[in-house]
Design a protein that fits this description.
This protein has a single domain, classed as Growth Hormone, Chain: A. It has 14 helices and no strands. It has helices at about 1-25, 35-40, 45-70, 75-95, 100-125, 130-160, 165-185, 200-210, 215-245, 250-270, 280-300, 305-335, 340-365, 370-390. By secondary structure, the chain is mostly helical. Helix content is about 80%, strand content about 0%. Helix 5 packs antiparallel against helix 13 (about 340-365) and helix 11 runs antiparallel to helix 14 (about 370-390).
């Protein structure tokens, strides 16, 4: 029994680390935006495009990994993706061009997709639909730690080296994860030779997933809710460092404080699932998040918001997200078994596409104020709430699969 529990714990930790590669890649270099811009003789807005290209790479790459995971099993595509990520990270570290940085970040994102898609699919493989919402909540704990550690590690590297070292550290960390995957992580689902990789069957598989009403509703509701987080990631370096005058270390501490809201909420979600359904928790959290988002943009428009209230409102906004992500993810994936890999890929792709859109909007409307970030965050939360609210206007008897435990 003890051996089985240790085995499950190792699987969970490994899946958590795989899930954290993407967030770590996003958060670790945020404190270096100003330094990167100065080093590459460009603007912060141009550097922000490297964040947008990362989101685009993740959104498009996950579509590729889904069929590969269903055809060749989970581990082979995962290992290949991690190798691509390591090579791209080293390329980012060696570049001296902002345009090349944007391109390498896109390739780096393609590599990170393997870990993100495989980890979600393997949660479905190892634990099944009845445990998935709680496991996703636990993964949120691992993922949530990355915003606390990543900016701190990034600031430390910046203080003792420079921004190039950030990408070298990412390469070394991912190499360690790659070794753990190769030698210790068991295969959760073997190859399926009957799974075709021709464009038409792949398209049909994705369409079968996409047209599922439960998947469609919760994938988009969760995707737009998550994109509010990415809008914050895109806009916060400029707002916290340039507008409010924080240094890199102080920014890392504020980032950690705000990230703690996401961690705490995701763990409270595990206990709420013992009493309420995933559907009810997600809907309530989205209502709260929308109200907080509208309050944030209102304060920013009238100009009556200092650092304290900015941090407090974002803290509450992202705390709501901790209740949204695990439940919408579990509800979106629960109808699928044979197409779990494709469903996981499409779910992640839609989420990151929304993230790419929101971070791009923050960069596009950048005007030296807090308004673009706040407006995009509020818009994302409100749109997510409207999508989920519309799903409740369905005929009787067409309720989604519940994940109440």
């Amino acid at each position: 029994m003890a051996s089985t529990q240790r085995h499950r714990l190792f699987i969970f930790i490994t899946l958590g680390l795989l899930s954290a590669i993407g967030p770590f890649s996003i958060d670790m270099y945020l404190p270096g935006f100003d330094a990167i811009a100065a080093s590459l003789d460009t603007t912060v807005a141009h550097v922000q495009l490297s964040l947008t290209s990362f989101f685009i790479g993740i959104a498009s790459g996950q579509i590729i990994y889904g069929p590969l995971l269903d055809r060749f099993g989970r581990k082979v595509p995962l290992v290949v993706g991690l190798i691509i990520y390591i090579v791209a990270s080293i390329s980012c570290a060696l570049t001296n061009s902002a345009d090349y940085l944007v391109a390498y970040r896109f390739i780096q994102a393609l590599g990170s997709c393997g870990g993100m898609v495989a980890s979600r699919a393997m949660v479905r493989d190892f634990f099944g639909p009845t445990e998935s919402a709680k496991i996703f909540s636990l993964l949120m704990l691992v993922i949530g730690i990355s915003p606390i550690l990543a900016p701190t590690v990034g600031s430390f590297v910046m203080a003792h080296w420079d921004w190039h070292g950030i990408f070298l550290v990412l390469a070394v960390m991912t190499t360690c994860i790659l070794l753990a995957v190769i030698f210790f992580l068991p295969e959760s689902k073997g190859p399926n030779p009957k799974m075709s990789l021709m464009p038409r069957p792949i398209t049909q598989s994705y369409w079968q997933v996409f047209k599922n009403r439960q998947f469609f509703t919760y994938a988009f509701a969760g995707g737009f809710a998550s994109s509010g987080l990415y809008a914050y990631l895109a806009g916060s370096p400029y707002i916290m460092i340039t507008l409010y005058g924080l240094n890199e270390k102080q920014y890392g501490l504020v980032f950690a404080l705000i990230a703690s809201a996401l961690i705490t909420a995701s763990q409270l979600n595990r206990y709420l699932l013992n009493k309420y359904s995933s559907e009810k928790i997600a809907r309530t959290a989205l209502i709260v998040q929308s109200v907080i988002g509208l309050a944030l943009v209102g304060f920013c428009i009238v100009g009556y918001i200092n650092l304290f209230w900015m941090v407090a409102l974002i803290f509450l906004f992202l705390g709501s997200q901790g209740f949204v992500f695990p439940n919408t993810s579990a509800l979106a994936l629960s109808p699928f078994d044979k197409l779990a890999g494709s469903a996981s890929a499409l779910l992640g792709s839609l989420q990151m596409a929304c993230g790419a859109l929101s971070s791009g909007l923050v960069s596009y409307f950048h005007n030296g104020t807090t308004i673009p970030m706040a407006a995009v965050m509020a818009g994302c939360a409100s749109l997510s709430m409207l999508i989920l609210s519309a799903s409740f206007r369905r005929p009787a008897g067409s309720r989604p699969d519940q994940t109440r435990r």
